[in-house]
Amino acid sequence: MNNIGFRRTHMCAELNEANAGELVNLSGWVQRTRNLGSIIFVWLRDRTGLVQLVFDEKDCDKETFALGESLRGEYVLSVQGKVSLRDEAAVNEKLKTGRIEVFVRKAILLNKAETPPIYIDDDHPDESETVRMKYRYLDIRRPSVQRTLRMRHKILQTLRNYMDGQEFVEVETPILTKSTPEGARDFLVPSRLHHGTFYALPQSPQIYKQLLMLGGYDRYFQIARCFRDEDSRADRQPEFTQCDIEMSFVEPEDVQTVVEGAFEEVFRTVKGIELQLPLERITWQYAMDTYGSDKPDRRFGLTIHDVSDAVRGCGFSVFAGAVENGGTVRGINAKGLAAKISRKEIDALGEFVKTFKAKGLAWIKVQEGGAVQSPVAKFLSEAEMDKVLQALDAQPGDALFFVADKTSVVLQSLGALRLELAKKFDLIDKNKYDLFWVTEFPLLEYDEEEGRYVAMHHPFTSAMDEDVDKMETEPGKVRAKAYDLVLNGIEMGSGSIRIHSSEMQERMFKLIGLPHDVAWERFGFMLEAFKYGVPPHGGFAFGVDRLIMQLTGAQSLRDVLAFPKAANASCLMMETPSTVDPEQLKMCGIAVVDEEK
Amino acid sequence: MNNIGFRRTHMCAELNEANAGELVNLSGWVQRTRNLGSIIFVWLRDRTGLVQLVFDEKDCDKETFALGESLRGEYVLSVQGKVSLRDEAAVNEKLKTGRIEVFVRKAILLNKAETPPIYIDDDHPDESETVRMKYRYLDIRRPSVQRTLRMRHKILQTLRNYMDGQEFVEVETPILTKSTPEGARDFLVPSRLHHGTFYALPQSPQIYKQLLMLGGYDRYFQIARCFRDEDSRADRQPEFTQCDIEMSFVEPEDVQTVVEGAFEEVFRTVKGIELQLPLERITWQYAMDTYGSDKPDRRFGLTIHDVSDAVRGCGFSVFAGAVENGGTVRGINAKGLAAKISRKEIDALGEFVKTFKAKGLAWIKVQEGGAVQSPVAKFLSEAEMDKVLQALDAQPGDALFFVADKTSVVLQSLGALRLELAKKFDLIDKNKYDLFWVTEFPLLEYDEEEGRYVAMHHPFTSAMDEDVDKMETEPGKVRAKAYDLVLNGIEMGSGSIRIHSSEMQERMFKLIGLPHDVAWERFGFMLEAFKYGVPPHGGFAFGVDRLIMQLTGAQSLRDVLAFPKAANASCLMMETPSTVDPEQLKMCGIAVVDEEK
User: Fold this and answer.
1) What integer pLDDT is reported at residue A597 of this predicted model?
2) Is any Cβ of chain B less than 8 angstroms from the Cβ of A194?
3) Given CB atoms, is B217 within the 8 Å cutoff of chain A?
């Protein structure tokens, strides 16, 4: 018996009118059959798509016809047949190959199949995800999954070639690495050769890439697998892929230019979209003030405006009090939505902002005539109300919403509210790709619980040159050489220039209340390494999975991975994680602990 | 303070005579300094190499000159200076940039460095490897390591582009996967979310790649990280990189053609060597008979010849007995080495072959006159001796060596002996790249201990069509659709066509004595998957690290990895594996077991 039937001459969906009259060999899976008695139509599927086969009693021998009759979905078939143009009436425009069909001369059944537990097509979106994940090896036969995984390949290939062209060297860093001091989310790997000790899977190659700069590699990148043992969450994967970049002798703009170029290349190659470079750069302060978010979705308006000055000392105590206590009053203008938002919906939005610690939501509707409808109207003078309306450029038909509180609460609430309104009223242009930088993040943020400043990114992030002098006097105002890349309101990745001077590093540790000896205990290996001539360096890392989601329109991270884990980090297909032989644990020097103890 | 000094305009070793007169900015590390009083020569190093800087009192201000005086090895420096042609007498031919030097105008010290614990050059090969590994971040500054890691990048990039061009899709398969039944060498990862269960790191993506074929991906590849928890061995790494390939609807030749093409591309691109395709294919039987090895080094002769017929029933009982008992007598001809191998050395070679279970080594020296010197001469008739000499094409000056035993012992001993002789007498042409296929491996081998046949590759390997009929009657003679690629006596990789029919799989399990229910218990998930229309498929995998070793001439796997582990699987640099916080273990539901118990 031949192993592969007829050696393929063509792929199914590559056939077209130009092949008419040719004798071709095809191999693939039976998508569906339609038996008309003396003629049987069979859709054959391979990685390129579908083509219609015709088993015609008049055209093939009895054995072949009988084989045609026996075919069922997902049978594996090899055929030899003649390509024929379809009659105009028989053309199937839905099929890429719909203008031709292949009259089978001979056929060999390569394998049978049981009826699959899921539909092998994209027409059944309500198929249970649990079943799809259990039979992922069948699920990935669907054309949409094939497209996504092929695009994933294309994106990574494009990235690699771009980085290579920019003289970056891809270096593979270890997966078996060391647990970090903050390693609560590290996956551990017990060592069989050294009982009682453990490797950890890397949450990122951060340390290695900085060592590569120390090692003189100058321009490094890696498409790197990373791991984070997070609690169950809807759309998290315990392992993910990251494009990791580090450069020496650079300022933020140098890193940004490379990253932009890479994104430009990917967008052009896989989506045919021309990005305008350089990408827009907005400061963290501007993003927070305007959108209430450090990763704003700018595909719609609803920007935030400060009305603190307008309501200072006004009769509405919530407003006046907030300003008096050093907080602010800010609002957004839901343009033209006054008539669309009911009182009940406003109440719901009020409850919504409370989940972000706002105490409530004040609102003003500007009616068609220009009259103002608002529970707070009676507390404001006409002049105050005018100033407020002016600050938000209010026009008849607009609905205005305000939060009064300390600034962080105001911004977070209004930032969330604008997203909520945009979703509710479908304000987002889904065809838009808004890619831009958020720069000048604060170096530190104050941790109320710990009563001290903590590093906003990580304690190796460099302060902006202009702000270095303020590190001890006004630490909260020091900006970092840190930058995020944002796409459609999603943080694609983040980067920074690192501290390369020991003196500066000591100052940083002092700022975050880390005593010298504790710092050495925790980061000693890095600090030791940094004694030997570390160059100025900085980098960037972005999640490849999330980028692919955006570019393919996938709904979940699971959809952009060939073999994803479910939300609880288990693989339904292989039933992983699983128990193992106690002997195996013993060899590793560990035992499972009874949870009751 | 500026972060990066003067923005680089050039890389150090890219400067040449054409740049003479230009004002350039360079950044890098001080390789060495030579202070002549009023003039200081400094070699500056970056990723491209070295260039000579000149600090001349007459040419730069006092501050700059003072900085020049303060420089020490590995200081990080940014300079602005003028490129100048050297006098003919001052040309340094050893330096790529030896015809020019850069007269420094201004310099900024970016960082100081303590004296490194190792030499940052390739002139100290006797440097302790332990120290080099501990300070790997400095060790990788050496030009030879830079070259190797850059060539590694180039090789992988070339492979990826080649496979992409052949319409293969790279699919990332999980690192957190399932422990296999034969998983004694699996690294385990305890699950924090599901106490008492474990992931395992993959020894290869074998199952996933077969599922991808089942899933219709047709042509898959991956540069995949794999893991094997082996006992300490000199040149093993617990994690390694493999180029993994799988194809559907193929026979062995199809897979081989793709692999050959990939190697051709790599050899051309990184070595400028044109491989002649198709590569030579020799059968396993031929390789064993001729070289006593399934991965022969063919860069030298010393082939094995069967003299069983010549010595059948002769007076030397060791020879005659071996033949009588169904074994063989075979020999190799150490051409022209008779005078070079002393009696003492022959004794040592006798001991050597005993480590391969041979009982002894018979020898014949053909002296210059043609007379024969040999302890066995007296037991052989003249005719027998003639036949033996003829079988080995013996000429005056040759030394012949023989082993008599059962065939497997004879071949293994002589295979090892020829390698030993080649090494001892430097017979290997180190500039030769001998790349070829060994095909038609046996499907099964008899396991004396278990008293049954076992799969030589794995139990999913397909038998050759011609031999399928013999599976039950002469299992030992069934050849598999299995093939290895060998380079200079080293197995680069191996592959096979897999079984895709359930009936054939059952026959295979029966052959290796695996009852149906045990097979299902062990491989149930795969067997279940294979019910749904699996296409004929096969593939190949080769170790990237070993290939890079061959192409770079590296002496150890450690040399081709940026951050390798030492022989005991530990990282001396980061001190990995390490103990972890007991709290962290508790979160994972495990405890370290006291080894005494």
Assistant:
1) 47
2) yes
3) yes
